[in-house]
Specification:
Distance between the termini: 20 Å
InterPro entries: COMT-like, COMT_C, SAM-dependent_MTases_sf
Number of domains: 1
Organism: Hericium alpestre
GO biological process, one term: methylation
Strand order of the largest sheet: 1-2
Keywords: Methyltransferase, S-adenosyl-L-methionine, Transferase
Largest sheet: 2 strands, parallel
Protein name: O-methyltransferase C-terminal domain-containing protein
Shape: globular
Number of strands: 2
Structural class: mainly alpha
CATH superfamily: Vaccinia Virus protein VP39
CATH architecture: 3-Layer(aba) Sandwich
Helix content: 25-40%
Radius of gyration: 18 Å
Length: 168
């Protein structure tokens, strides 16, 4: 169910985005939540600090809690490792020759972003396997990968709906 289908959820205060310190133990309001969402958070941090964030969430999470991480994923310029293809939702990328598997310059924005995150925040973009290892090391498990292509175009509208609904 999306925010557009259930704005009453926000008005009911069942779903509320609390302001929290990601590096500290989570307050009671954030404990045992059904769902935790990290949107464009982890790429701003090195593995050391991303692991601290994920560990604090894991400690706060209940046995049925889920974690939704919305991040850009780096593609390989070479063939994808078989381990990555084993992750549910991952598709083999086989563009026509002479294109690289990562589509070369067509996806340069991701690689520029990776360098930018490193230079400004000491952060980094990650591959699917890098995310899987980071999650595993903090008590989470990568169960499925999904592409949110439409998210790139509609996220601003969803944020406006979220903002309107929450302030109402």
């Amino acid at each position: 169910m999306s925010i557009t289908q259930a704005p009453h959820t926000l008005r009911s205060h069942y779903a509320r985005p609390p302001a929290i310190d990601l590096f500290a133990p989570q307050p009671g309001v954030a404990r045992n939540a059904d769902l935790y969402i990290l949107r464009q958070i982890l790429h701003e941090w090195s593995d050391k600090y991303a692991a601290k964030i994920l560990t604090q969430l894991r400690v706060a999470a209940g046995p049925q809690s889920k974690l939704l991480v919305i991040e850009s994923v780096l593609l390989y310029a070479c063939d994808q490792p078989p381990e990555e293809l084993a992750v549910k939702g991952t598709q083999a990328l086989v563009p026509p020759a002479p294109l690289l598997p990562n589509l070369g310059g067509a996806n340069a924005r991701l690689y520029y972003g990776d360098v930018l995150m490193l230079a400004i925040y000491n952060g980094q973009e990650r591959t699917v396997l890098h995310f899987a290892e980071l999650f595993r090391s903090t008590g989470w498990e990568l169960k499925e990968r999904g592409d949110l292509e439409a998210f790139c175009f509609v996220n601003q509208e969803h944020e406006r709906i979220l903002e309107r609904s929450y302030k109402a």
